[in-house]
Amino acid sequence: MPIYSYSRLNCYLQCPRKYRFAYIDRIKTEIKETIESFTGNIVHETLRKLYKDLMYEKMNTLEELLEYLRNQWRRKWNNGILITSEDYTPD
Question: Over the stretch 58-70, which tens digit does the pLDDT of each residue have?
């Protein structure tokens, strides 16, 4: 039975052929990550840190979390990330 996710369904709605290539035929593309997915991953990592630290009764300040996010961004950014809109920049 196929696995459905928001990303898969959204991909199909955007373009059924794109869905087929990505999820059925599993054709690899050169573009590994978009700015939106990169940003989402960094935000999720930051939230994971927040909740993991809370489990050990450590309360991060907003500034600590923002610094963690900025560090992750700088560490993981690469030129292979696709910027999909003129509204976005690597910074």
Answer: 999 999 999 999 9
